[in-house]
Design a protein that fits this description.
The protein has about 325 residues and is of the alpha/beta class. The chain is built from 13 helices and five strands. The protein has helices at about 25-35, 45-50, 65-70, 85-100, 120-135, 145-165, 165-185, 195-210, 215, 225-240, 255-270, 280-295, 300-320, and strands spanning about 10-15, 35-40, 60, 75-80, 105-110. Helix 2 (about 45-50) links the parallel strand 2 and strand 3 (about 60). It starts with 7 loop residues before the first strand and ends with a helix.
Length: about 325
């Protein structure tokens, strides 16, 4: 028996993150040319589209031996893999091939659809939806109740960045993303003004496109300064604010608040000297304004100094031990 007569097995894999029916051209060719198309999952999302395309699909879960028999005489059998990828079947085929007792068909793994960048975000939305529905703690949370966690996660992200820990950075970015998806899922249930994570993403996309006319429009920008000018101009058009102080969150840390105010004043070309006053608060305000003018983030600078102070404390404790 020659290699051709042993037939061919095509294991067709698809991504559940891509709309059913959107398959690659090699996948459609293999499906149309197959002598038999099998799928163990009768509810597989691809099946209605395959049948609509005139491809008969048998609901069957063949063993490795069954597949070898089905390929006898040079036939081609396509197996539409389930979400698990048919590990029992592939393990069985590998075992039979290793035994040396079978004339094995040609085996091809054919990805019919691929995940696009960002596809795992769909999984995150699905997982969050189930947690919100089934978890006794998550199902009771509100926007107000989650505020402290958003603040904590933001600070932990800052720490991971400043420490240069790549593993921690990846994890903390995920924790911040969780807060976004969690809040968006809660927002879906609002009886008066519901919105979803798609609405959140859509609003962000529109904002980014509008504020980057040098990328998506006909404007030009060759330097970071020109980009910032575009950003500020389009933002001002969107917000139509009457004061440069509008939109600055007053609950942020004091040094950051002072630096943000100073940045808005400087960018707007206003001449506003810091208020006269005595005490440490006014001294810190003056330092924050000076730091911002010099291009230094006072919060970052103070945290770096505080870490150095922490290290000095530990060194002293170690010397005294």
């Amino acid at each position: 028996m020659n290699a051709t007569s042993s037939g061919r097995i095509v294991l067709l894999t698809t991504s559940h993150r891509v709309a059913p029916g959107l398959l690659s051209w090699p996948a459609w060719q293999a499906l149309h040319a197959a002598d038999r198309v099998l799928c163990a999952d009768g509810a597989h999302p691809q099946l209605p589209y395959l049948r609509e395309a005139g491809i008969p699909v048998e609901e069957a879960a063949p063993t490795a031996e069954d597949l070898i028999d089905a390929c006898a005489g040079g036939r081609t059998v396509v197996v539409v893999a389930t979400g698990e990828g048919e590990p029992a079947l592939t393990d069985g085929l590998a075992r039979l091939a290793g035994s040396g007792r079978f004339h094995m068909p040609e085996l091809e793994l054919l990805p019919a659809s691929y995940d696009l960048p960002g596809a795992r975000l769909l999984d995150l939305v699905q997982v969050m939806d189930r947690i919100r529905t089934e978890c006794p703690w998550s199902s009771r949370q509100t926007h107000q109740g989650l505020v402290k966690y958003g603040i904590e996660e933001a600070y932990e992200l800052v720490e991971a960045i400043e420490e240069g820990d790549r593993d921690e950075l990846r994890e903390e970015l995920g924790d911040v993303l969780l807060q976004v998806v969690f809040h968006a899922r809660i927002a879906e249930e609002d009886p008066e003004a519901p919105f979803s994570v798609d609405d959140v993403a859509g609003t962000l996309v529109d904002k980014l496109v509008h504020r980057h006319p040098h990328v998506f429009g006909e404007e030009s920008a060759a330097t970071p300064e020109e980009v910032k000018a575009h950003w500020l101009r389009t933002k001002a058009e969107e917000k139509r604010r009457t004061s440069v102080t509008e939109g600055i969150p007053l609950h942020q840390p004091g040094l950051a608040l002072a630096a943000k105010l100073a940045s808005r004043v400087r960018t707007a070309g206003l001449d506003v000297p810091p208020p006269a006053g005595e005490g440490i608060g006014y001294e810190l305000l003056a330092l924050a304004i000076r730091a911002e003018a010099e291009g230094t983030d006072p919060e970052t600078a103070l945290r770096a100094a505080a870490r150095a102070y922490r290290d000095a404390v530990r060194a002293t404790e170690g010397a005294d031990a």
